[in-house]
Amino acid sequence: MLILQQMIIFVLLMAAGALARRYEILTPANQPQITKLVVNIAYPAIILSGVTGKGPRIEGAELAYAFGVILIMLVLLMISAWLLPRILRYPKEHYGIINVMVIFTNIGFMGVPMIDGIYGKDALIYMTVLLIPFNILFFSYVIQTIKGHSDKKEPFRWQNLANTGMGACILAIVLYLSGIELPYVLAQSITMLGSMTAPLAMMLLGSFLADTEWKGMINGRIIAFTIIKMLVIPIVLTLLLGRFVDNTYLLAVCMAALATPSGNIIPLLAAVYHKEAYPVSVQGIALTTAAAVVTMPLVALATGLG
């Protein structure tokens, strides 16, 4: 199964990251810089690399259709995220952090490399279409939601959307729709930069898991959260979308967005905006990341996308 093979590759890369942390090659001092390298250079490059080749193209109407499907998926995901903390009876002050951990997955670190590795560059245009509303939702919604019932309120600012990931998404759409072909030297340079994404991102996740204090972290509620977030929601929503979507690439991108673990930037934001929710965020990120090795292949098998 392709996704199982890809997850084994990810596990080996994460093991390399854990070893790098063990021998202090990756350290708390240099992890933020390497993360910035992935987020600001490698990740945008892999998005752009999806439109620099000469593979099959999709027409504007199909792009609009893909955008509509992705918006429907995000709405369904937001509804699920609103319900989950209430179903699991989390304290009200934790509603926001649970909500965010359901919606904002590690799509950049795990989803993009997974789609690239399994389906190739032809599928990345659908990932690009996904990332535009995903980024807009993240920067306009996440901080206010994490704050939850705290008194801190930060108004939405358009400049929050000015980042290299968003820029790469917009540029990729422009290049794709205009049919502009980049010179070989530039296109190949972008592809090579993008190829750094998976190994660096997985090594960073491995170092994060190596630093995690597992003792006392596991409890019934966080296990239930992980099962619902990593198995129930992605399987149910992907199968539901699959009744109306017959495009394998598009459906696989939706599945990747739903099945990847919670984003590892969330604890950093919780530490700044809602410190009381920080322990819950660390539990969720650590357990969903560890569980992804098993759950992502299971989701792919259950949805027929493996």
Automatic annotation (TrEMBL):
Q: Enumerate the UniProt keywords alphabetically.
A: Cell membrane, Membrane, Transmembrane, Transmembrane helix, Transport
For membrane topology, the record states:
Multi-pass membrane protein
TM spans, by residue?
A: 63-84, 96-118, 124-143, 164-184, 190-210, 222-242, 248-273, 285-305
* DNA repair as UniProt keyword: no
Extract the InterPro entries matched here.
Mem_transp_PIN-like
Write out the annotated subcellular location: Membrane
Any Pfam family hit: Mem_trans
Query: By its UniProt entry, which PANTHER family does this protein fall under?
Result: AUXIN EFFLUX CARRIER FAMILY PROTEIN, SLR1864 PROTEIN
Q: What is this protein called?
A: AEC family transporter
The scientific name of the source species is Megasphaera massiliensis
